[in-house]
Specification:
Layout: H1 2-16, H2 22-45, H3 49-83, H4 89-149
Helix pairs in contact: 1-2, 1-4, 2-3, 3-4
Length: 151
């Protein structure tokens, strides 16, 4: 549970950070957040050495792809929070369409990696992984909404 609190705190801090550009932000996610997420996931899944060896390369690629989608979505939330007072209805509509695209990309990424995770760690642990990842994603989404409410 302490690990979950630590991961949640890190996720919340990343949401409010302002990086110089997208690449800095993506590197921040990769270097800090992914280490904590990996540690949390490995601990919660209770992977054997063999499972960990098979899971790690797939997980690393998954985190790279899903991280790019998360960065894009965070940028959209931040743009909205920054410009909410001046956005026209058409701009808000465009933003909503972009948010839907990022959600679809997330689902496509999950679908792409599902069978790879099942092959690496079995269906039960792969399912547990996706539930854990969904929980962490929901924490981030909630933090984004809190961040918008405070703007």
């Amino acid at each position: 549970m302490k690990k979950l609190v630590l991961v949640t705190a890190l996720l919340l801090s990343v949401v409010t950070l302002q990086a110089q550009d997208k690449e800095d932000y993506l590197n921040l996610i990769k270097s800090n957040l992914n280490l904590e997420v990996k540690s949390f996931i490995y601990e919660e899944l209770q992977l054997t050495s063999a499972e960990r060896e098979a899971f790690s390369p797939v997980f690393n690629k998954y985190l790279d792809e899903s991280g790019e989608v998360s960065v894009k979505k965070t940028e959209l939330f931040e743009n909205y929070a920054t410009n909410i007072a001046s956005y026209t209805p058409d701009q808000i509509n465009d933003l909503n369409k972009e948010l839907i695209k990022t959600d679809l990309q997330k689902v496509k990424t999950d679908k792409k990696y599902y069978n790879k995770f099942v092959k690496a760690i079995g269906v039960k642990k792969a399912t547990n992984f996706f539930f854990l990842k969904k929980y962490l994603d929901n924490v981030v989404e909630g933090a984004k909404l809190d961040f918008l409410a405070n703007e």
